[in-house]
Specification:
It is built from nine helices and eight strands. The chain has 332 residues and is α/β, with parallel strands linked by helices.
């Protein structure tokens, strides 16, 4: 995924877009009534971190999930089959995407739903493709090689899969749509000496314009991205705070109550170009991004490198993220 813009011009572009959207009646989340919630006492399903770790390993074991490859299709079929075991409905949304270089690739968004009959719904999302270029690798010989995509992709998917399994046994009061976006991480590489925002997040752009159900709506959404690294650090990024400050503040309050205050840092940081931007702007669903934010490097040390492998995954971090998200959902 193309996360943090590489120039102040790009930051200003995203921030200006947000300001225009909100000033023209965009999807600002309505302020929620203030209420004191003891998130530590909210009854949530058990989250098996070993199971989540296994789901991440399964994805990596299939190879590089680059759109148009055999491994990509194999992983898609596995995700669909596995989610059908727990969810009431699974929709595979097929589309064709044009990459930054003009190449066309097949895309598959996967939407698995719990309690599809409920009108009040929550979107839980991640991207499942892995990047075809290790363009941030310290070794330039690796810049045109694909990345394993363990933390950047597989970790968020693994968390959602284990959440789908355990939440199917103890249903919340709202319907849940687990949305796995495809062709998120194939944006223009650093070595191309060019940059265009819209070359990233192609699956979420498509879904936001063409939802899997006619007139689909959700109360809010939570995007998980790079949620598996050890010594994780999540901050309140600016796009999330502009569109969905209420749900973001609830997540951070839940994290503090559950003892994860050092992981969910109460700090507002620069906007990030990620799937949530398009869900907010195009689908009109307030969505926040829980995403790794390391101040000393780009997101985390192995971001878009060949070392983003299984060793980068920490099962305790994945469990912490899931517990925080479920505490907010189940307190409703």
């Amino acid at each position: 995924m193309r996360k943090r813009p590489t120039s102040w011009w790009a930051v200003a572009t995203i921030a200006t877009t947000i300001m225009i959207a909100t000033s023209c009646g965009g999807n600002n989340e309505k302020p929620a009534a203030t209420a004191v919630v003891d998130y530590a006492q909210v009854a949530t399903p058990d989250f098996d971190s070993d199971s989540a770790y296994h789901y991440a390993a399964e994805q990596l074991g299939m190879g590089f999930r680059v759109p148009g490859t055999k491994a990509h299709r194999q992983c898609s079929d596995w995700l669909e089959h596995t989610l059908r075991q727990w969810c009431d409905t699974v929709t595979v949304q097929e589309f064709s995407a044009t990459l930054w270089n003009g190449n066309r690739v097949p895309g598959r968004n996967i939407i698995a739903s719990l309690s599809p009959e409920k009108n009040n719904r929550v979107v839980l999302a991640a991207h499942w493709d892995s990047r075809m270029y290790a363009d941030h690798d310290p070794d330039s010989n690796n810049w045109r090689k694909p990345i394993p995509g363990a933390n950047d992709g597989a970790s968020g998917v693994a968390v959602l899969m284990e959440m789908a399994r355990t939440m199917s046994k103890q249903r919340p009061n709202v319907g849940i749509d687990f949305v796995l976006f495809d062709v998120e991480d194939q944006g223009i590489p650093e070595w191309a000496n060019d940059y265009r925002d819209d070359t990233w997040c192609l699956g979420s752009q498509y879904w936001s314009r063409h939802p899997h159900r006619l007139f689909y709506a959700a109360n809010y959404g939570i995007l998980l991205d790079m949620v598996g690294t050890s010594h994780a650090r999540f901050t309140k990024e600016q796009v999330s705070m502009r569109y969905a400050p209420g749900i973001m503040n609830k997540l951070w309050q839940a994290a503090a109550a559950l003892g994860y205050g050092q992981m969910f840092v109460n700090e507002q940081t620069d906007p990030i170009l990620d799937d949530h931007l398009y869900v907010n702007q195009l689908a009109n669903i307030p969505m926040v991004d829980i995403v790794q934010n390391s101040p000393e490097c780009s997101f985390y040390p192995y971001w878009h490198t060949v070392k983003d492998d299984q060793e980068a995954i920490d099962k305790n971090t994945m469990r912490a993220v899931a517990r925080v998200v479920m505490a907010v959902i189940y307190q409703q």
